[in-house]
């Protein structure tokens, strides 16, 4: 698929525009695919997985809570359900959410996370 160069693209870039990394070039790579499943990176193991398979964590005050459902606003981080202990060992929670952030104990407990982020 040939795409014309966009205004910010260098003159020597011809063809599909992939060399300049433009949005047009990224869109051209996705042409033909029906649904794009969003992928996120686990803050503990750095592995990539579909967003639906990960737990979204959000900071509320000093507590980091489950912000998956309902989706809470604010800066979020994603983690595999099995990587919560690893996140504590590697201090991924502190690095992602700040030095005062503490993981809510109910997040890792089976059936303990209400998902409301403590907003009752």
Report on this structure:
This protein has helices spanning 23-30, 84-89, 92-97, and strands at 39-41, 48-50, 55-60, 63-66, 76-79, 102-103. The protein has 120 residues and is of the alpha+beta class. It has two domains: 1-36, no CATH class; 39-103, no CATH class. A hairpin with a 6-residue loop joins strand 1 and strand 2 (48-50). The model is unreliable at 113-120 (pLDDT under 50).
How many strands appear in the DSSP assignment? 6
Percentage of residues in helical conformation: 10-25%
Strand order of the largest sheet: 5-3-4-6
Question: How many distinct helices?
Answer: 3
Overall mean confidence score, pLDDT: 76
Cα Rg = 19 Å
Summarize the main sheet: 4 strands, mixed
- Assign an overall shape: globular
Strand content: 15-25%
CA distance, first residue to last residue: 53 Å
Tell me the number of structural domains: 2
Q: Indicate the structural class.
A: alpha+beta
> What string, H for helix and E for strand, traces the elements in order?
HEEEEEHHE
Q: Which spans have pLDDT < 50 for at least 5 consecutive residues?
A: 113-120
């Amino acid at each position: 698929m040939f795409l014309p160069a966009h205004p910010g693209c260098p003159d020597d870039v011809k063809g599909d525009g992939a060399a300049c990394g433009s949005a047009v070039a990224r869109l051209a790579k996705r042409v033909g695919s029906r649904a794009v499943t969003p992928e996120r990176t686990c803050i503990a193991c750095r592995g990539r997985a579909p967003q639906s398979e990960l737990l979204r964590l959000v900071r509320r005050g000093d507590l980091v809570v489950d912000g998956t459902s309902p989706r809470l606003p604010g800066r979020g981080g994603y983690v595999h359900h099995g990587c919560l202990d690893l996140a504590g060992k590697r201090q991924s929670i502190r690095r992602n959410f700040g030095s005062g952030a503490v993981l809510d104990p109910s997040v890792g407990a089976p059936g303990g996370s209400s998902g409301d982020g403590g907003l009752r």
